[in-house]
Every structure is written in structure tokens, then in C-alpha cells.
Amino acid sequence: MKNSLILWIFFLPLFKTVGQVPRIDHTRNYNRVYKDSLKTVAKRLLAEVEKHSEEPKQIMKKMQVLNLLGTLYLEGDYKELDTSMAYNDRLFELAKQQDDKEMMIDALLRREVKYRRGHDYVRSLEISLEALKLCDALGGNCRKAWMIQQNLGLSFLRSSDNPKAEKYFKTALTQLESTPDDDRPLKLKHILGLYSMLSTLYQQWGKDKLVLEMFDRQLAVAQELNNKISLAGTYEEMGDYYNKIGRAGKALPLLSKAFALFEEVNHTRGVASVTNSLGESFLALKDYTKAQSYAEKALAMANQYNYASLKPFAYHTLTEAYGKLGNEMASLRAYRQEATLRDSLGIARRLVALADMRRAYEVDGARLEQQIALQTRTRNFLLIVVLLLSAIGIGLIFHSRTLRQKNYELARKKREIEQAFLKGQTTERKRVASELHDNLGGLLSAAKLSLQILDPSQLDRHEREIYDNVVEMMIDACRQVRTLSHNMLPEDLEREGLLPVFDRLIYKLNSAGTTQFSLQTSGDLPARLTPEIEFNLYLIGFELCNNVLKHAKATKTFVTLQRLGNRVVLTVADNGKGIPTQRVEEGMGLQNIRQRTLDIRGTLSIESQPNGGTVIIINIPYEETRQFLASEVVTDN
């Protein structure tokens, strides 16, 4: 009664908030009172939740409680397995109705344990594969994938397929370690179990170095877990291994630690097992009296608690110990008991081995089918992707060709517009030049002839000077009109190109004033540029030279036309008085020059200092001429 009251006070907070499902403290699994109390709490929670079973939140809580009860009864004695399965079946049906795959997997894993305990490995395999399908459907959200991999590894371990067993155990360990630490002690317990399975595998495989590595990991996890049963189990495994390889002296202290821990928590199965192992250690150390004593104690506990698997080992130790101590009859009786038990266990093991082999082959077949299905899906997906990419690629090719054709059309129309504009300018300049030469030039010539008809001898000295000045101005005006009409658009420019016309322009400029002009050209300059560039460069050069004559008061002017890399450069440099800053910005002549430079995609730079001369540089991309020629070829084709 006192104990019940204490437990009620301890678990009272659980009932204050119905729906708070308690978690199992796996460090107290050995405490039967604790687990029985937890079962009582879970049953009361289930009864409370079932009153509101139609509410969605209560359905989830009900599944959690059923899951807890299934686990509690599964971890108990084998006689409670049916009770565990009763709760488990209710959980599976409810989870199936709610399409809760996680809960369905939990229920299937417990069901798999039932059939594995009953040595029905075929049915166990079927359930594992069913759980695996649900896990695949969840994808990365499946938290129990590691447990399925662990069960498959156990199957291959029993069939001695060591490489596959190692593969599945390691996969299980990797998946388990990547799961969130919602229940750290439980996670450590599972990790400890996987290390134990790997150490068993490596012992069977004969890889002693890896066995010791696994023991070190087991010991570290058991110490972190701070669970006496887990730590004792690890010490026992290590001691049994050293007994097996003939190092009983190293096994003895490990087994002694395990014995003390098992005895401290009253774990009878562990005490019985370690007692037998201690007997084997003393037998190897030739202390036959102690070996007999420990083996008899282990046998007594095995008989008392019906630990059938322990009896053959105890009888084997007694057979050897009695024989060494001279008790031949007792040794013979122990041997007969050992043989009888081993024969019965051997038949059972052979049946288990056959079932395991069948299970292993079925697992291989199922995995192969899954791989084939996955490869088929992957191949189909890749085929669809390739077809889509091909369709997109073909569309892009057609689109690119359409754009290219449109660009060709735009370039052709642009050239037509430019040529039409240039032709219009040329025609207009020819008309203006013709008007200047024919009309204005004719009028000036007639006026000059009329003046020359007059007899200057009839005029006084002052009037004669005026007459001479007027005649001289008329002669100069006629000469300038002829020069201007010719230079507005020299006929030679279309026929011969820019260089010969520039050369003749410089010659005329030198004969027309006091400024000495010189022209320099580079040898790699092409003989002909595009009509647009030749036309505008000529007008720019003519305007710049004319400005020098009008405003610069220079004695020397250097005109350079050359190709520098991918540019054609026209430079006009004089030693005159320079250009005021205001005229650089506002002068109509320079604005016209700047606009013509932009028309042929060039740049204009002016460097001028008072009384220090002026340098004007026109830069034109050489590629423009090549693009023009290429577009002409495309248009012609």
C-alpha cells in the first residue's frame, strides 16, 4: 500500500494534463516496479483518451499511448508478448485509418520482433519489407529506417554473409546517428546495440582489430549512457571474447566488473551468464575448483529460471572441471547432459539457419526488384529530361536562326537608310556646289568683267585705289567660290578615295595662304574606307583646316591620317593661338564636326592652350569599315 501511494504521488503530474504521454526512461529498464507503474499510468491515460476518441488531437494521443503500451509489454517477459501484440494491432489499424505511416512502421517493427522470437523468419522478412515500403514512401522523414536496416543485417549475420551484414549494420548506424536526439538515452541504447552486433560480426569474420575497436566504442557509449546493465553487458561481451581467444587472465577482471554490476541491480539473467563465463575463465586458468563452483552456480540459476541456452555451457565447464579434479562419473554425467542439450539446440539452430538463408535470399530478391524499379524510373525520368532538353534546344536553334535573319534584315535596311542618307547628302552638296559654281560664280565673273571694262585712267588717285581694291576682291571672291564649290564634294573622292583627295586638298591649302600644311599617312591604312566614313572624314578634315586658316594664325599645321590597331585616327595639329574654352563648347563649326564624328561612331578630343597651338584628334573604330563590308556581302548574297 505504501509503495502504491508513493508511485501515485510520483506519477500524479501525468494526470493533470491528459495527453501528456510519458516517455520510457531506458536507463531504468531493469526496474520492474518502475515499468509496472508506467504500464498503470499508460492504461489510465488510454481510458481517459478514449472518452474523446473522435477528436483529432485525441486520436493522435491515443496512438501514442498504444505505442507506449506495445513497447512496455514487448520489453517484458516472453509471456507478455500476446498483450503487446493486442495493443500493437489496435495501433496499426488506427494508424492505417489515419494514414500515419510512422506509427504503422512502429507497429510493424514490433510485429517483426514477435515472429523473429518465434523463429518464423519468412514472415519476419515479409513484415520488414512491408515496413521498408512505408519508409520509402516517407522519404527522408522516416525515423525508423535504421531499425529495418538493422534487422536485415541480423538476417545476413545468421546466414554468415558477413559483407552484406556489415553493409546493413553500417547503414543502420549512419541513419541512426543522423536522427534527432528526441530521446538521447534511447538513441544511445540503440547505438550500443549496433556496436554489439558489429563486434559479433567481426568475431565471426575473424577481424580481431575491428572487434577491439567496436568494444572501445561500446564502452564509451555505455559510460555516456550511465546505465549499469548496459555497462555490465559490455564488460561481459569483452570478457567472453578474451575467453574465446585464450586470454582468460584479461577476461577475469572484466567479467568481475560485469558480475558486480548485474548483482547490484539484481539482474538474474546477467548474473547467471557472467557466473558461467567466470567458470570458463577459471577453467582456462586451471583453477578447476573455482571453475566447478561457478559452473554449478550458473547451472542452478539456469534450472531455477529456465535459462535453457545457458545450460550446455555450464555442463561443458563441469565436464572439464570434474575430469581434471578426478571425478570421472560426474564428468561423464555432465558430458551426457551437455550432448543431449546441444543436440536439441543443434536441430533448432539448423532450422533457424535454413529459415535465415531463405530470408536472406528473399531480401536479396526484394532489394534487386527495388533497384530494378528505381533504375527503370530513373531511366524514364532521364529520357523525359533529355527529350525536353532536345525540344528546348531545337526551339532555341530555330529562334536563334530567326533572330539572326532578322538582324541581317535590320542591318541591310540600316545600310540602305545610311546609303540613302549619304546619297541625299551627296546629291544636295552637288546641287549646292553647282549653284555656287554656275550661278554665284557666273555673277561674280560678270561683275568682275564689268568692272574691268571701266577705264581706270579717267579716275582720280583715290577712286583708282578703290577701283583696284574692288577688282581684287572680286577676283578673290571668284577664286574662293571655285574652291568652295570644288571642296564641298570633290568628284575625285568617289572615284579615287580619301588619300589622293586629302593630298590635293593640302596642296591647294598651301597655295592659298600663309600657313604651311603637311600630310602624313601610315602604310597599313586601307586604300578605301566606307563611303560614309570617307565622306565625313573629308568634311571634318576640310572644316578643321579651314578653321586653322580663318582663326588660328598658325604658321604650320600637321595633318595625320593613320591606322592605330583597330582604329583609324585623323589628327590636325597647329602652332596657332589656340581655341578659347567658350568656343570649344559653343562654336557652330566644332559642333558640326562633333556631330559628324558621332555619325560614324567615332570620338573627338581637343587639346588647346593659349598661344600653344591646338591638337584635334578624331578616332574611328576600324571594325566599322569591316562590318560595313561584311554587311554588303550579306546583302549581295
TrEMBL record:
Signal peptide: none annotated. The keyword Methyltransferase does not apply. Residues 431-624 form the Histidine kinase domain. Pfam families: HATPase_c, HisKA_3, TPR_12. It comes from the Bacteria. Keywords: ATP-binding, Kinase, Membrane, Nucleotide-binding, Phosphoprotein, Transferase, Transmembrane, Transmembrane helix, Two-component regulatory system. CDD domains: HATPase_UhpB-NarQ-NarX-like. It is an enzyme of class 2 (transferase). InterPro entries: HATPase_C_sf, HATPase_dom, His_kinase_dom, Sensor_HK_TwoCompSys, Sig_transdc_His_kin_sub3_dim/P, TPR-like_helical_dom_sf, TPR_rpt. Its EC number is 2.7.13.3. The chain crosses the membrane at residues 381-398. SMART domains: HATPase_c, TPR. GO terms for cellular component: membrane. It catalyses: ATP + protein L-histidine = ADP + protein N-phospho-L-histidine. GO terms for molecular function: ATP binding; phosphorelay sensor kinase activity; protein dimerization activity. PANTHER family: NITRATE/NITRITE SENSOR PROTEIN NARX-RELATED, NITRATE_NITRITE SENSOR PROTEIN NARQ. This is histidine kinase. It comes from Runella rosea.
